[in-house]
Write a structure and sequence with these properties.
CATH architecture of the largest domain in chain A: 2-Layer Sandwich
Number of domains of chain A: 3
Largest interface: A-B, 128 and 128 residues
Radius of gyration of chain A: 30 Å
Distance between the termini of chain A: 41 Å
Shape of chain A: globular
Oligomer: homodimer
CATH class of the largest domain in chain A: Alpha Beta
Low-confidence stretches of chain A: none
Number of helices of chain A: 17
Number of strands of chain A: 24
Strand content of chain A: 15-25%
CATH superfamily of the largest domain in chain A: Bira Bifunctional Protein, Domain 2
Largest sheet of chain A: 8 strands, mixed
Structural class of chain A: alpha+beta
Chain lengths: 595, 595
């Protein structure tokens, strides 16, 4: 039998190996016939090596080689020789040599693939890529991201281990506790008609592990959420889950900062520096309109309520009267921006319910625009000072309900930054956003809900407000933000069962519901619970940042579509009648049209 | 606020720290009042430290300490002092010192636990342990096993990384392919009435990754099986999943052997030696009656068919006539074994359908027993030689259908070995069992089924038998056996789509079924598939062996009961009507009586 165990992979050989007999195995990336000689670029996960088939050496092997097509799997024995003068390829690690083939085995033929493998610059429709994921990965773009994902996971594990954290695997077959997103349900056969739920996070388990005295826990955990998917979400996602006892947010911040430093050092060789700056939730919203500000560039939102109040600008005054706000952005050197461009900006904020933008440009002669007339010289001076307006700057003003103005200007700010190339490359601006509110009002139901989750501890200083004015209570919750993405979210947990019960009550859990869903957990808190806290970092997002992609499906080996289906496996699929009978379920499967 | 961040954990302090001011936090393991002084053993995951409260130092703190009960969570500031003469506890790493408490904070009170935490020797009913798992873990026995599990997982990952294997996470939401055990089904909301399945193993995905060119893959993977549970099974279990391209079983054996060496070195500091011996499946069954022989002790099964044939022992002759076999064990120095004891042995083999045991004892005067008369002197001599019978040995003879005799004597052999302490402690006898048959006959359906799984390659030498005599075809499959446990199972895979289709046909898959379940996979094989092979190691079993437990629930943080329920979470549970409506499912939940 032909011995196809390679002696080298396809990235290694160079002129130091000249004269050596080698075995290489891999895929035919490309074949070229050149005046008698046949050249094949042999490919594996690691790289490319050029093979040469010389009819003078063996006519039969040369003939066999001439039948070979792209993507066939072959193995060869041969001799490393230098490339002919002028044929050295400096872009390839093996570009100085080629391998003269002495024996050839065709291990596996291949149909013509539905898209080109060797030319990964050709754009392929994503559905086709997913259907033939095994070929898509072969193109190299996804595979290099999977390599990075592996590196990252290992770096996380070794770092957490060095800090005395234990990785503890928690169950996938859990209990449905419908308080966050929608659960995926798994049918029980032993207890027909009952269901397990897939975990949205190991939250309850990690807190139980603290009650168990495990002290420092982490896990790279698969989590599940049955939601209609936004472009950057997947029904299964991965988080780096961390929990620790007898510590404070400062202690956790340090661990997370060191972890991130270790990750960036190991994966990219970059020193990101630490500690990370802190910003209150309130300041983030005020200054950037979002709780995950991208601070790689400036251009803050500036509030102009008081100045507008003294103006005669009736449109804006009207918004203020309706409890709205007025905020503005200053675009440096934006005076050249056309009216048409500003109309496009209006459509950006328009998506968030902002009806228009007022604008002014600064020239050496002062502000120009049709709205200047509504402001006195003093007021214009005040705007200029507050917003640090210089010559050739453009200011854009939005008015309306606070959350709409914030959302609109946040998006506009980032839109302009991308458009005007204000974002520095390879810059990683981390930020802890602190002092989130404990509760918020669900706009659909008008109920009070937990901003973070119901296990978050209120800020100890705000305990007295819990009954009087719960919406004013700050949580001991914090987010880690990087370049405008929420990378981690965490909190100090409640470790007192009475306080936990009270929070559930504030969240309008009925006694019955509470007992059924969290009764055991409130009981567990009564048996000696240490102060504990933790966070969860989005692993998929970190890989996306490390590999510079905006597509979450690029960093997952076998992702789902936005309809949560797997077009390669053709899943989900109907159950057999035998399966349904055993589960005592009735189902009428909707027919799925697979691509 | 009291600063409860500890300066040391409870295992560290010794007389080098005397005089130092420290902060300790943890659980009250035990409190003792001794003539004015109060002693508290403070416990954390790491160890115990003795605290002393002296009323002369502070009456108020002493008073507070007198209220403390077991399992309360406290934090103290204090000074390390030497223990009084004669009070040193050499069993404790902190036994030379105690900490004189200067400040005390009660962080959390505790109800009296349902079982003792500080005395883990007290036996607790397993259902109660599982219901209060968070307290059970606190008792230390489980927690030390979870620490070992963490160590093991990290050792595996670092070793596999060092061998260029990439950890690639494969999906949990998969497709039901009911060919092995029963799948767990997850209801789809987007496509109502359709289901995902939880993976029984990542088999298809790891083979697709080889087709993708990922070359070397591994994963510590959660797997799921909806089966009625044997004592050592769990519905969710973990395997170390490995796959590689362009290699042979010998190459994989070496990697697995080095992996096991690394594991035992890292986790136990033991050098297990390598390479591991090989044994054919046929020899294992013949000599040990099982495909996972425990070779830590001798006592092989010896076939006596030919000798019995020449005897006048009609009972055994009858069995031979019915295509049965006669096999025997020799128990060294077993002559003292009583008839009553032999009756117990008969009940062991009786469970496998063997009606009784014939026996003979060897004394200097020759064999004794009521069956000696059936054998001539020559035949007795032949038995003596074949079985290496010495004075004072006992031989036990079983007859019947081959698989029953094998099963019965395998169990009896191990039963006797345990009973007579023939098994050496801390000995790890690894063994590769090779040349499994490709197919077997399912006794219930009488159909031909895959012994390993349908992706296993037939032995290349036996290809010609596939059509003629498939039951004679050997598979390129191998198991790694340790001390009588199957630790890993693997095979060379089929990398030719035509052969794969043929095997599915032999296994009586209909074209339609095949297309629906594995169509995409057979297609994938057509696009250039490298020769590949792999295996899966049972991680839970390895932890059990490393931590010397026979109970799989000891090595899983939150295990399920044998009815696949979680008595702590009370899962599974009924879905809400809203959930069922969204999934378009009808279910009538069976009521579950929770403990």
């Amino acid at each position: 039998m032909f011995d196809f165990r390679r002696t080298y992979d396809c990235r290694t050989l160079n002129k130091l190996h000249i004269g050596e007999k080698v075995t290489l195995s891999g895929w035919v990336n490309k074949r070229r016939d050149h005046g008698g000689l046949i050249f094949i670029d042999l490919r594996d996960r690691f790289g490319l090596t050029q093979l040469v088939f010389d009819p003078k050496l063996s006519l039969s092997i040369h003939e066999k080689a001439s039948e070979i097509r792209n993507e066939w799997v072959i193995s060869i024995h041969g001799k490393v020789i230098p490339r002919a003068e002028g044929m050295v390829n400096p872009k390839l690690s093996t570009g100085e040599i080629e391998v003269q083939v002495e024996e050839l085995e065709i291990l596996s033929k291949a149909l013509t693939p539905p898209f080109s493998i060797c030319d990964s610059t050709i754009d392929v429709n994503e559905e086709t890529r997913l259907k033939y994921r095994y070929l898509d990965i072969r193109r190299g773009d996804v595979s290099s991201k999977l390599v990075m994902r592996h590196k990252l996971m290992l770096a996380v594990r070794n770092f957490m281990d060095s800090q005395n954290f234990l990785e503890i695997t928690t169950p996938i077959l859990c209990k449905s506790t419908p308080e966050g997103a929608r659960d995926y349900l798994v049918a029980s056969r032993v207890y027909p008609g009952n269901f397990y739920a897939l975990p949205q996070s190991p939250q309850i388990f990690k807190q139980l592990l603290m009650i168990s005295g495990m002290d420092r826990y982490f896990q790279i955990a698969q989590c599940f959420r049955d939601e209609d998917l936004r472009a950057d979400r997947q029904p299964e996602f991965t988080q780096i889950d961390i929990e620790m006892s007898f510590n404070t947010p400062e202690g956790l911040f340090e661990i997370c900062e060191n972890l991130m430093q270790h990750i960036f050092q190991t994966c990219l060789g970059i020193d990101i520096g630490a500690p990370f700056p802190h910003m209150s939730h309130k300041e983030a919203l005020e200054k950037y309109g979002t709780d995950k500000p991208d601070v790689r560039f400036d251009m803050p939102l500036v509030r102009l309520d008081d100045i507008v109040q003294k103006s005669t600008f009736s449109v804006l005054l009207e918004e203020l009267k309706n409890e709205g706000v007025v905020k503005a952005l200053c675009v440096k050197n934006g005076a050249e921006i056309s009216r048409k461009q500003i109309e496009e900006y209006e459509s950006v904020v328009g998506k968030f319910g902002i009806k228009g933008l007022a604008w002014m440009k600064k020239s050496p002669e002062g502000f120009t625009s049709s709205i200047v007339k509504f402001f006195s010289e003093d007021l214009l001076k005040e705007i200029e000072n507050r917003m640090n307006v210089e010559n050739n700057d453009l200011i854009l003003i939005a008015a309306g309900p606070q959350d709409r103005v914030n959302q609109g200007l946040d998006h506009l700010r980032r839109h302009i930054a991308r458009q005007r190339n204000l974002i520095k490359e390879n810059v990683f601006e981390f930020l802890w956003v602190m002092d989130f509110p404990m509760f918020t009002i669900d706009k659909e139901t008008n109920d009070i809900t937990a901003e973070h989750h119901p296990f978050t501890s209120p800020n100890f200083e705000d305990m007295h407000l819990l009954d009087k004015d719960p919406l004013k209570v700050r949580a001991l919750a914090y987010d880690l933000v990087l370049n405008g993405y929420e990378l981690a979210s965490g909190s100090q947990r409640i470790h007192d069962s009475a306080l936990q019960a009270k929070i559930f009550k504030l969240l309008k859990f009925s006694d019955e519901d509470l007992k059924a869903k969290f009764g055991f957990f409130i009981d567990a808190l009564k048996y000696g619970t240490p102060p504990h806290l933790g966070c969860a970092l989005g692993l998929d997002r970190i890989v996306m940042i490390l590999t510079k992609t905006e597509n979450i499906r690029d960093v997952i080996a076998f992702p789902k579509t936005q309809k949560a289906s797997d077009v390669m496996l053709q899943a989900p699929s109907p159950a057999t009648s035998q399966q349904l009978k055993e589960l005592k379920l009735k189902a009428e499967p909707e027919k799925i049209a697979w691509p």
